[in-house]
């Protein structure tokens, strides 16, 4: 009996996404007893503290709970599609390198399988034009990937010709030849939280997401998107694709193989710089320059405007905003607040105008897109509202109000399944918010969305759907 087993499960899920259902729980228990015996620690609370505070200990432990099952040329039809169709197309489109990432690469068989296939097809040309990366959370398995020595277990289903051509036997193991080994570079990366940059053209994420629950898979989608080139594709394992269809990316199919790509309207944008911008903005208070007097005054006006808005004193709020905009007509916070006031007063063209002014300065403003979605919704322009809300959930997958209004728009368009799925997402995000309040995703939008009311509305709509179908 491990008294604090849920604490362990929570810590690991928070850090690397692995979700402990019954089968995985047995793995966790075994790993704990093994590692604690190695460390000669008997107290589960003491070991938990070690795991929590020491990155080295966490790295050693993670190796015991990852499932690294893989083999060469696994689900080979996907690899064929990539090598035969995607790579030639991408090579034709550009002069720079085409980049492929095997995410959750385990001991490297997937990445090397691609390298072998590409070598067979393109020979020397591959060296200059195609880059292959593997990444995994487990440092021990990455060491094995770099070493590239495999037992016969990894060669299930490999043609003998390929095995002989690219591997040399050494005892019971087969060593991959350097000409292929050197084509792949491996990196320690937590794909839930970190991004490998520059962006890649093809991401393979096969047999990894099955160990994550739905909110984590959704988070993962958002993160992978930032690593994917606008024209790129994300491939899951054949059986996993549908469980990963969140409507964030577009599901496509070619030769019977499913993959995800950017929606056309978002394909032109490159999400990564937004992250860079965010990092650049994350200065500590001490690092920030002292505000100039005018900036300080504007910030006071904005604070007052927000307080008036909360009290529904719209004309007072308007006056404060007018002072800011007189001094700084492009001030995004002021435009946003003014847009919300206009929305409250049903002056939709003013709301839309302000949102467009913000987007002209920052095409990534989720706040402006949310305002446009709401303005369209109130004007019964359902399809346009859907398009804007989709963009918000694509950028901010944890922001449940956007999911909620998207669900509403689906329901009004009689798209029953997407509506039900999206209401469930809202419920899940609201539950997450209760269990982990620090996970809440907020925008700088000065509109209050009371969670309990929206939970009630979702439950009601889901019950209605159940009633209609049963
Ligand atoms: C079953 S293997 C899949 C190997 C290969 N992709 C395949 O399809 O054969 C799953 C791998 O995902 C890795 N993994 C799990 N969580 C991860 C995370 N948060 N970041 C990166 N890799 C992770 C594990 O360490 C493991 O090596």
From TrEMBL:
It holds the Pfam family CheR_N. Residues 1-259 form the CheR-type methyltransferase domain. One of its GO terms (molecular function) is protein-glutamate O-methyltransferase activity. The lineage of its organism: Bacteria, Pseudomonadati, Pseudomonadota, Gammaproteobacteria, Enterobacterales. PROSITE patterns: CHER. It is an enzyme of class 2 (transferase). It catalyses: L-glutamyl-[protein] + S-adenosyl-L-methionine = [protein]-L-glutamate 5-O-methyl ester + S-adenosyl-L-homocysteine. Keywords: Methyltransferase, S-adenosyl-L-methionine, Transferase. The keyword S-adenosyl-L-methionine applies. Its EC number is 2.1.1.80. GO terms for biological process: methylation. InterPro entries: Bact_Chemotaxis_MeTrfase, CheR_C, CheR_MeTrfase, CheR_N, CheR_N_sf, SAM-dependent_MTases_sf, TPR-like_helical_dom_sf. This is protein-glutamate O-methyltransferase.
